[in-house]
Amino acid sequence: MDEIQEDLGSSPEQFPHGFNVRDDSVAFVRLTRADYEAASFLDARILTPGRASVNLPWPQVAAAIDASRLAEACDYIFHIGHVGSTLLSRLIGAHRGAFALREPAVLRTFAQLGDRLDAEPPARRDAEFEERLGGCLKLLSRTFDAQQIAVIKATSFVSELAAGLLSRPSSPKALIMFVSPESYIATILGGPNSRQEAKVLAPGRLRRLHRRLGSEIWRLEQLSEGEILALAWACEMTALAQAANAGGARVLRLDFDRFLAEPVLLVMVLQHFGIDASLSEVHAILRGPHLRRYSKAPEHAYDAALRRDVLNEARAVYGEEIRRGLTWLDRAAAQFAAVRAAMLFAA
What we know:
The protein is of the alpha/beta class. It contains 16 helices and eight strands. It has a five-stranded parallel β-sheet with strand order 5-6-4-7-8, with helices on both faces. A three-stranded antiparallel β-sheet has the order 1-2-3.
């Protein structure tokens, strides 16, 4: 364990896989540069049989962070889910100036922890939460090369932390990704797995949206599938619109459908993160494999044309549900300013 502590300040090889709230410890796994590049999710899926995790008590981790004088210097990709964020992360990471991390589980834990600790006394909650979150962000800011910038693609529900993350003293930058409500609902309806995932996430999204709006107005059993998907869009987009207000000029908006029509927008994305990317470098990245593979499972072919076909089929089969969802969203926007702001943000 002393060896792990000594390694924490030298490179990202000792990855903070998770934070254990119960025993106040951080789990580390050793990852190579190639491991990071391959991983679509830095969560339990990286714990292969030959890669065990090792827990270190938080006081030891904090001492190692302080001794190494690690700085918090990471940027973010926030998104509503199923809007190409993994693809953008891979494209960004293909540039030598970026170190891309996709969905570190430890950030999910802090999003969930922040949610559960709302009832704690503020002084105790804020001090303990901030110390551990700040320490883990410093660990996630490490890069293999000195000139690199760590760009973290968060899980969608980490958007609950986004406004706070963008308000931190390190003044991080962020890319915020979304699609229109119609495109989002069609995307989810176009895939059996995404439909099932949406059902599982619906109760939490309803609770989050109610909390943001300050009113418990809807019940899931009274909503159709299209309306529940519109609610999902509203939940995630209201969080991101709030984050955009906190980040100001440090936030870049990106409609994924627009990006697919103009992939050269990658130049703008890289430059937003302070990465000096030339047009020729970006064209070389775009000629690579990423735009022709499914980013979450690169062994499968997938491109903009196939995505378009899936969406059009969903529109043909589920047109009535899509219309129900859009009607629900219009009513919600008429009633709540936060939903109206989210729709303006995505317009």
